[in-house]
Structures are given as C-alpha cells and as structure tokens.
From TrEMBL:
PROSITE patterns: ALPHA_CA_1, ALPHA_CA_2
Lineage per the UniProt record: Bacteria, Bacillati, Bacillota, Bacilli, Lactobacillales
Top-level lineage group: Bacteria
InterPro entries: Alpha_CA_prokaryot-like, CA_dom, CA_dom_sf, Carbonic_anhydrase_a-class, Carbonic_anhydrase_a-class_CS
Co-factor requirement: Zn(2+)
Protein name (record): Carbonic anhydrase
Reaction(s) catalysed by this chain's protein: hydrogencarbonate + H(+) = CO2 + H2O
Enzyme class: lyase
Enzyme Commission designation: 4.2.1.1
One GO MF term: zinc ion binding
Length: 218
C-alpha cells in the first residue's frame, strides 16, 4: 500500500494541543438518542458512487481510499472525495463506542463539506470489506469495490453541524451518522486495525448544538 507523500505534524497522543479555545462546534460527539429532534426536511440521501477505487493509501494517520462519485443530500449535490477508517469509532451513541467507523467525505461546489459516518459491529464476514482489503494488500488489480453496499439498507441518520475530526479541525461540516450497524468479522477488523488501532479523536462537547434525526421506513 502506497504511503502519502505529505507529512503530518500532529498525533493522537497529543490531542490536547490540537484545538483552539474558541472552538464550539467540534466533532465527534456523543449522540444521545433521547435528546435528538425529528428532522422535518425531506432529508433523503441518494448515492451515486463509482465502483472503482482509484487508490488506497496510508495517510500517516488512517487508511484512505480515493474515489469519485456523488451523494445528493436533501436535494443538494456533494461530490465524494475519499473514505477512511477510524478505530474504534469516533462517534458514540448513548455513550457506546463501536469497533470501527467509516467516513465518506464529500464536498459541494460551494466548498461545503458533508461527511457520512458508518458504524460497524463484529459479526459475519463482509464481502465488500474483503474487496477493500485486497486492494490494501495489493492482491487486486481491478480495484472494484461496491461502496454503496457498505451502507445500511435503512438510511436513517443523525445530523448535526460539526468539524473535521483531524487537524485543521475545520468547522461548519455537515455530519450524517447512520445508527444501523454494518457487520464485519474479527479477522477483517484485525486486518484494518493492524495499520491503525487507535486513530480516533475524543468526544467533544455538544454545547448548544442540536442533533436531528431523520427516520426512514425501509
């Protein structure tokens, strides 16, 4: 797996040095389901992702896949830039962490950033995850990955305004965290976490922000 050419000047052991004192809308957060407000907007997320991952690289802090595609979120188009993994999960639901969290990072033409977070649990082997691992281990030449199958069938999500979870911690990022868990096997988790097993940011204060929930029947 190729390493990124850029170097980073921060690490997860010194998170207390990352942030500026005036930051009030940071991520990740704990999602308290009892305090989430129902989202009145249509809120639909429509995915149109490429099934070819351009490359998977070691950024120095995460495993990242560079890929194209788009997501239409509440009627607005966001272009997929990349996906990457955090272990354990960065977001918590009712103060519970999960073994792994996958972030799909998008950007609109306006510059607005939207991140969709997928949470994982231990269970049966995941075929799509195997496709990613084969590219990481350079066993695949076609780079085919059906990324949309890494999403839960039900696209119910929690939405809030936050930030990037790594420096520069830019705020005004739209977050969409899906609570329905995706299964991976213990072996697959180990294949990812052998690279990074502690690349998660600590939970940040909610302050006066609202968490919205959009529920879908299917």
């Amino acid at each position: 797996m190729k390493k990124a050419t850029t170097t980073i000047d921060w690490n997860y052991l010194e998170q207390h040095n990352w942030c500026f004192d005036t930051a009030m809308s940071q991520s990740p957060i704990n999602i308290d389901e009892t305090k989430a407000e129902l989202m009145e907007d249509v809120g639909e997320i429509i995915l149109d992702y490429s099934t070819t991952v351009d490359e998977i690289i070691d950024t120095g802090y995460a495993i990242q896949g560079n890929v194209t595609g788009k997501a239409t979120i509440n009627g607005r188009i966001f272009h997929l830039q990349q996906f990457h993994f955090h272990a354990h999960s960065e977001h918590t639901i009712n103060n519970t962490h999960f073994p792994l969290e996958l972030h799909f990072v998008h950007q609109a033409q306006s510059g607005k950033v939207a991140v969709i977070g997928i949470l994982f649990m231990l269970g049966k082997e995941n075929d799509v995850f195997n496709q990613i691992i084969e590219i990481m281990e350079e066993k695949s030449t076609d780079h085919f990955v059906d990324l949309e199958k890494l999403f839960p069938e039900n696209h119910t999500f929690y939405h809030y305004l936050g930030s990037l979870t790594t420096p520069p911690l830019t705020e005004n990022v739209e977050w969409y965290v899906m609570p329905d868990l995706i299964e991976i096997s213990e072996k697959q988790l180990a294949q990812i976490t052998k690279w990074y097993d502690h690349n998660h940011r600590t939970i940040q204060p909610l302050h006066n922000r609202h968490i919205l929930k959009k529920e879908f029947d299917n």
